[in-house]
Amino acid sequence: MLQSARRLPTVRGRRLPRRLAQLYVGLALYGASMALLVRSGLGVMPWDVLHQGLARNLGWSLGTVTIVVGALVLLAWIPLRQLPGVGTVSNVVVIGLAVDGTLAVLPAPSAMAWRVGFVVAGVLLNAVATAAYIGVHLGPGPRDGLMTGLVRRTGGSVGLVRTSIEVAVVASGWLLGGTLGLATVVYALAIGPLVQLLLPRLALTG
User: So where are the chain's domains?
Assistant: First the structure.
C-alpha cells in the first residue's frame, strides 16, 4: 500500500545540518512572506484566501488555520499513497507559527505605496523561501504533495490539477470572506518563474 522506503526523501549525508538549517529558515521566511501579503490588504496567496476565510469564520488565528488545513491535506496523502518527509511535517507546523509570529509584530501600513511595497516584498520573499525549502529535497509541502499525488493517480497534467485545486480553494475562501485581490493575481503569475530562477541557486543534496 505504501511506497517503498527508497522513495522517501533522504535525511542523511554530510550536508544534512546545512540542509536542515536551510529548510527551517525557508519555512520561517515563507510564513513571514504570507504575513506581508496579509498586511498589504491587497490580496493573499491562493491557499491563504481559504485560510483567511476560515480564520475569520472560526475566530482562529491565520497560523492555526494554516496548521490545521495542512494537517488535513496531509491526511489526504494516505489514499494517494504519498509518503511525507521531515520537510513535509515541518512545513505544516513552522509556517503556521511563523505567520502568526510575524503578524504579531508587523503593523498594517496605511499608505498605498507601502502596501504595494509589502506585496512586492512578500512575493519576492516567498519565492526565495519556496526555493530554499524545496531545494533541500527533504519532502514537499502538504499542498504540493496533494497536487503531485493527484497528478499521478488521475493522469492529469500538472497545470490542470494545480489550477483546479487553486481555483477551488480560492473560490471557497472568497465565499468565506478571504481577501482576493491584486496581490493574489501577481503572486499566481510571478511565483512560478521566480522559483524556477532561484531553485538552481539554492538546491542542496547529499
Answer: 17-202
DSSP track, 150-184: HHHHH---HHHHHHHHHHHHHHHHHHTT---SHHH
Q: Is 174 exposed, middle or buried (CB count within 10 Å of its CB: 0-12, 13-18, 19+)?
A: middle
pLDDT per residue over 9-60, tens digit each? 555 666 889 999 999 999 999 999 999 999 999 999 999 999 999 999 999 9
Model's pTM, two decimal places?
0.90
Region of 180 on the Ramachandran plot (φ > 0 left; ψ -120 to 50 alpha; else beta): beta
**Grid cell at residue 163:** 489550477
**CA–CA separation, 194 and 14 (whole Å):** 29
What gap in Å lies between CA 39 and CA 166, rounded to an integer? 22
